[in-house]
Write a structure and sequence with these properties.
By secondary structure, this protein is α/β, with parallel strands linked by helices. It contains 13 helices and eight strands.
Length: about 300
C-alpha cells in the first residue's frame, strides 16, 4: 500500500486510480491504524480499562522494532528525558505502526511544536509533561486535537499517507489518538477537577519525582508528602471518571495504585531490560561454569 501511495499520489488527487485500493483497513474503515489491535486498545483506554506499558529511552528504532511484538498495550518513547530527537524518532514511530502496542510519545514540553509533530509523524498519542494549570491544559488540547475540540494544525504528512488521505485523516484524528497529561506540579493538582472536565483530555499520568520537585524537595526527602499529593490527584481523576496512572514504582506500588483506581501503568525501560537480560546471561554462564563436569 505504501508503494502505491508513492506512485499513485497524483492520480489520487486527480480522481484516478485509488493508490490505497490494496491497503489493509482497520475495523470501521480506520485506515491509519495499521495493526487492528490498536483501535481496540484506544477504546479500552477511553473506557478506563487497565493498560500496561513501558519506556523506550535509548533512542534506537531497531530496539523498538525488535520489541514491536511484545504483549504490552503501549510503549512510551521518551522525547523529554530519553535519547530521542527529530532524526531517530520518526523511524521508530514507523516501525511501531505494525505493532499491536500503541506508540505514545512523551513530548519535551507544553510549549513548542512538539505535540503536533509527534502526532503528524504517526504517534498513537502523546504524554505532555510539566502542565501547570487549566490554561496550559487547554493549550495541550488546542495543539493535540483537531476542531471542534482544538485547533491542531493540519499537516499530518506521513499520517495522511503524504496527503493522499487528508480528509479521512483529519476526520478520524481525534478518535484515533490519545492525549495524556502529566500530573507533576502541585499547581495542576489544585486545578485538577476543572482539568478533568476538559473535553479532549483522555487521561493522566502521575510523575512523583517532578511532583516532589514542585513542592521544593527531592522525592527521597519528601516521599510521604509527595505520595499524599499523588494519591489525592489520583482520587480526583477517579472520581471524575478519567483514566489515571503512574510512571515507575515497585510491584507493590502497582498493586496499591490499582486498588485505588489507577489503570495506566508504565513500568521499566529498555536500559533496565538490557541490564537485567545481560545479568541473567552472566548468571547462567556462571552456573554452567561452576557445574561439575559429568563423565562420559
Amino acid at each position: 500500500g505504501f508503494r502505491h501511495a508513492r506512485a499513485g499520489g497524483k492520480h489520487a488527487q486527480r480522481g484516478g486510480a485509488d493508490p490505497f485500493r490494496f491497503a489493509p483497513r482497520s475495523p470501521r474503515g480506520i485506515l491509519f491504524m495499521t495493526h487492528p489491535g490498536k483501535r481496540d486498545t484506544i477504546a479500552r483506554a477511553r473506557r478506563g480499562e487497565a493498560l500496561s506499558g513501558t519506556l523506550f529511552n535509548l533512542g534506537s528504532p531497531d530496539l523498538c522494532d525488535a520489541a514491536a511484538m511484545c504483549p504490552l498495550d503501549f510503549c512510551v518513547l521518551d522525547w523529554e528525558h530519553g535519547l530521542w530527537n527529530e532524526l531517530n524518532l520518526p523511524p521508530a514511530i514507523r516501525v511501531l505502526e505494525e505493532s499491536p502496542m500503541l506508540c505514545i510519545v512523551r513530548v519535551p514540553s507544553v510549549g513548542g511544536p512538539w505535540i503536533k509533530k509527534a502526532l503528524d509523524w504517526g504517534a498513537d498519542g502523546v504524554i505532555v509533561p510539566g502542565v501547570k494549570d487549566f490554561a496550559e491544559a487547554q493549550h495541550c488540547v488546542a495543539e493535540g486535537k483537531y476542531a471542534p475540540l482544538g485547533r491542531r494544525g493540519v499537516g499530518p504528512l506521513r499520517e495522511s499517507r503524504y496527503y493522499t488521505r487528508l480528509h479521512e485523516c483529519v476526520r478520524q484524528g481525534n478518535e484515533r489518538t490519545l492525549l495524556w497529561l502529566m500530573i507533576e506540579t502541585s499547581s495542576l493538582v489544585e486545578d485538577l477537577a476543572r482539568v478533568c472536565a476538559l473535553e479532549g483530555v483522555d487521561g493522566f499520568v502521575i510523575g512523583r519525582n517532578d511532583l516532589s520537585q514542585s513542592l521544593g524537595r527531592p522525592f527521597a526527602e519528601w516521599r510521604d508528602q509527595t505520595e499524599a499529593m499523588a494519591m489525592r490527584a489520583q482520587e480526583i481523576c477517579v472520581a471524575a471518571g478519567k483514566p489515571v496512572g503512574s510512571f515507575g514504582g515497585t510491584a507493590d506500588d502497582v498493586v496499591r495504585w490499582a486498588g485505588a483506581g489507577a489503570t495506566i501503568f508504565v513500568v521499566g525501560d529498555d536500559a533496565q531490560f538490557a541490564r537485567d537480560g545481560m545479568a541473567a546471561v552472566a548468571e547462567m554462564i556462571g552456573r554452567q561454569a561452576a557445574a561439575p563436569v559429568r563423565g562420559y
